[in-house]
Amino acid sequence: MGERGNFIHPSAAKFVKRNKVRLGVGVVVCKGVRIGKNVYINNNVVIQKGAHIGNHVGIQALAHICVNAIIEDDVFIGPSVSLAGVRDIRHGRGPYVREAPVIKRGARIGVGAIILPGVVVGEECLIGAGAVVTKSTEPFGIYMGCPARKVGVVEEKDRLKKEMKS
To answer: I need a surface site. Which of 24, 30, 59, 88 has the fewest CB within 10 A?
Structure first.
């Protein structure tokens, strides 16, 4: 245990220190995690081994980031969001089929949403609170429900500015 009840694996600690990652209380960052600059990780977040988190990312309290998940730049992950990475569970007997989800640049994921294995959340997509995303989404789409369905498109005025994309 480290400062404020956090556990940061030594292989990830260099990213936390060098990139000045801000951490809440009770954060767990496992082996081989890479974290970009200007990242905020709130209380009691678990980031499993091999995950990659880009620049300018916010991860809110109680989120779970699975093994090898990829979160690109400018992403917001709401409280209690779960990214799942095991597709085929065999009652503890393995082998497990792992397919990490990918969250593309600028996506926003609402409270309690679940992103299932192998799903790619499209660029600047908006995922509503409590949605269960079972299939990959289109860029700029708005998805809600269980299973998540496209209900709209993020308007041009609500998209990231072009100059931020470089």
So the answer is: 88
